[in-house]
């Protein structure tokens, strides 16, 4: 029997192909889900499932390489924003225990004469898996297209023009993180898990179906709600940057990835972290302030905020 999703489910085609009533209903439902839970499941998102699994297969080949080979693509001096990050390096904010994962970062490819070419790090590609570059770039573009459409709807929900949030991410430092959670001895250590409780840094995160479940969100009453990995669904959550500009009207919800029960198996996931342009100033929107309400946070650029968090989680 197929699992039923535990969070609200929307269909992006209601916004892209529906009539005005369908579009308005979509805007309301996705906005309310992010307001109440910080999470929503999206169907009809436009990212091809075959392309997703082609990338999983290619990255599985990379993660199976010898440790010394993988470490050739690791750059601690640049905050590991591109390429490989070794197992046991990253930890959640305010948690000293390392997460049980290794991962790969890839971002947008910019031409050498682009104004941001010197500020957004260049991708690195593993020569041992030559087909990976083309397929990963294709997936990146599909994910960004999907994100732009969702951000249009969220902009309207916030009382802004449809182009408000999509314009914010133009030439932004959005990245795909390809995560491998291997089977390892660390499952037995108290307090250690695949990804300890945390909030995302960015505007929104798009998480196409992982190879198995394990994601959980923290309810307002302190209990944990499992979110299932269901074929064809993308899990979307709001990050700290969106919470910041909405004065926490669209909060960033704490979540984690728990260790598997029963026989341990490896897990792969591929979140797309949507970031604004590095120079964009994150400040509270007037439409998100009630009369007499003060902003909960001071203005800060997206780049400054990102670097601050990278230091807190051990990547910079």
UniProtKB/TrEMBL annotation:
This is Isopenicillin N synthase family oxygenase. SUPFAM superfamilies: Clavaminate synthase-like. GO terms for molecular function: metal ion binding; oxidoreductase activity. The keyword Ribosomal protein does not apply. It comes from the Bacteria. Gene3D superfamilies: B-lactam Antibiotic, Isopenicillin N Synthase, Chain (2.60.120.330). Belongs to the iron/ascorbate-dependent oxidoreductase family. Pfam families: 2OG-FeII_Oxy, DIOX_N. Transmembrane segments: none annotated. Residues 171-276 form the Fe2OG dioxygenase domain. It comes from Lujinxingia litoralis. The lineage of its organism: Bacteria, Deltaproteobacteria, Bradymonadales, Lujinxingiaceae, Lujinxingia. Keywords: Iron, Metal-binding, Oxidoreductase.
């Amino acid at each position: 029997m197929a699992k039923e999703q535990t969070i609200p489910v929307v269909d992006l085609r209601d916004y892209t192909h529906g009539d005005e009533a369908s579009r308005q209903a979509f805007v309301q439902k996705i906005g309310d889900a992010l307001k109440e839970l910080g999470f929503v499941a999206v169907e009809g998102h436009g990212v091809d499932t075959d392309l997703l699994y082609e990338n999983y297969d290619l990255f599985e080949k990379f993660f199976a390489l010898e440790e010394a080979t993988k470490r050739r693509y690791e750059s601690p001096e640049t905050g590991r924003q591109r390429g490989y990050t070794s197992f046991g390096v990253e930890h959640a904010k305010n948690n000293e225990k390392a997460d049980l994962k290794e991962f790969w970062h890839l971002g947008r490819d910019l031409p050498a004469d682009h104004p941001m070419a010197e500020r957004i790090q260049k991708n690195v590609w593993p020569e041992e898996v030559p087909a990976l570059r083309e397929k990963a770039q294709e997936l990146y573009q599909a994910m960004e297209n999907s994100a732009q459409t969702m951000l249009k709807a969220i902009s309207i929900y916030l009382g802004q023009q449809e182009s408000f949030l999509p314009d914010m991410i133009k030439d932004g430092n959005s990245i795909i993180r390809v995560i491998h959670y291997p089977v390892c001895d660390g499952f037995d250590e108290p307090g250690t898990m695949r990804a300890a409780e945390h909030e995302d840094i960015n505007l929104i995160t798009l998480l196409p179906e992982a190879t198995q479940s394990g994601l959980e969100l923290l309810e307002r009453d302190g209990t944990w709600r499992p979110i299932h990995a269901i074929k064809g669904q993308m899990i979307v959550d709001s990050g700290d940057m969106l919470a910041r500009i909405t004065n926490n009207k669209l909060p960033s919800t704490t979540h984690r990835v728990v260790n598997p029960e029963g026989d341990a198996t490896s897990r792969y996931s591929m979140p797309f972290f949507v970031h604004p342009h590095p120079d964009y100033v994150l400040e509270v929107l007037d439409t998100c302030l009630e009369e007499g309400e003060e902003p909960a946070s001071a203005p800060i650029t997206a780049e400054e905020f990102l670097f601050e968090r990278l230091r807190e989680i051990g990547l910079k």
